[in-house]
Amino acid sequence: MAPIVSIRNLTKSYASGFQALKGVDLDIEEGEILALLGPNGAGKTTMISIICGIVTPSGGSVTVAGSDILTDYRKTRAIIGLVPQELTLDAFETVWNTVAFSRGLHGCPPNPALIERILRDLSLYDKKDTMLRHLSGGMRRRVLIAKALSYEPKVLFLDEPTAGVDVSLRKDMWQLVERLRASGVTIILTTHYIEEAEEIADRIGVINHGQILLVEDKKALMAKLGRKQMTVELAEPLTAVPDALSSYGVTLAEGGGQLVYEFDASGERTGISSLLSALSQAGLRVRDISTEQSSLEDIFVELVGEGR
Q1: What is the sign, positive or negative, of the torsion defined by CA atoms of 196, 200, 206, 211?
Q2: Residue 87: CA atoms inside 13 Å, Cβ hemisphere, count?
Q3: Per residue in 256-278, pLDDT tens?
Q4: Cβ-based burial of 92 (10 A; exposed 0-12, middle 13-18, buried ≥19)
Q5: What is the CATH number of domain 5-223?
Q6: pTM as predicted
Q7: For the chain, which residues make up each domain, given as ranges?
């Protein structure tokens, strides 16, 4: 099956000479949730803005459901929904009218039942007659999502949708995203909250300095790049790593009371058994052993650091 969004050699340069995108290639599969991670200025918003027809690319091509975003603008824009970072709303309009107007603006016939369901899903229905200026920032962000959903897009871009909202609202939005995916909507999410990507994404993409560093299935990424660390708590502290343990690459934690050993959990041999034997032969008494795996945040920081 062809990807629902296909990006080839996409570039964007500004008059100042700044290159926001440098030959981006990316395929997004229908029905998946792709989380796009990257620091500020990495090119996330520029890429989304190009796909949504807000910014003109300098070069390359983008197709959505097989149609080119430049030559078939009306066709592609009709199936793309965008929830932008900025809270740009008419402060003196009601929630219901704002969402209903967005549906009409995209050429869709009135559907009060759909609008009601969307508002209920976003816990906005009791605010349907409230002017937007009376809503909190988190509620206004929900209205942005409702606007995007009102015309039933096949592809939905969420650009930092939970920025500045509380944790409970963030989890409500995660549940909504799952329901949308279940209904067949393809979702591309940019976020600074790495736990958000870890929680709901199928694949993770990392972008920095206008280039895609990696796009990988989340579980495969964690298995490939996520390393495990074993911490051995000693009964008596050491001043240095014994020579008998030097071949294992262990390090001595501050204070000398712990030895730290990193290993590849997916490898055929972790080296743990032989290390424990070496500890015993070296006459070291062990008080406790614990292990932990690299988080997605650790992997992200490592990738972005390498891309500098």
Answers
A1: negative
A2: 16
A3: 889 988 776 555 566 777 888 88
A4: exposed
A5: 3.40.50.300
A6: 0.72
A7: 5-223, 227-306
